[in-house]
Write a structure and sequence with these properties.
Structural class: mainly beta
Strand order of the largest sheet: 1-3-6-2
Shape: globular
Strand content: 25-35%
Radius of gyration: 14 Å
Helix content: 10-25%
Number of strands: 6
Length: 87
Amino acid sequence: MVYYEDEVPKCLKENEEYTSREIYLFMMENKNVQILSDSVHLSRDNKSVKYRVVSIKDKFIHKQADDSYRTYLIPNAETKIIEIVRV
């Protein structure tokens, strides 16, 4: 996927609206970000669908390892959790 640097938002702000593409690009450029959404699909090419940022939190994510049974992954850094809703 090809895009310009200036297409990627530097940060996302609460109560601001962003296109599906902007959120997708932000997520691709910021590896320590998790997006919570009421939509199943976040299109990387759609500039007409908009989302509003409901909340932003920095928290530790605790989860089971994907490739192992009963293995707990201990988080070593906080993850930025951004909740969005379709406008």
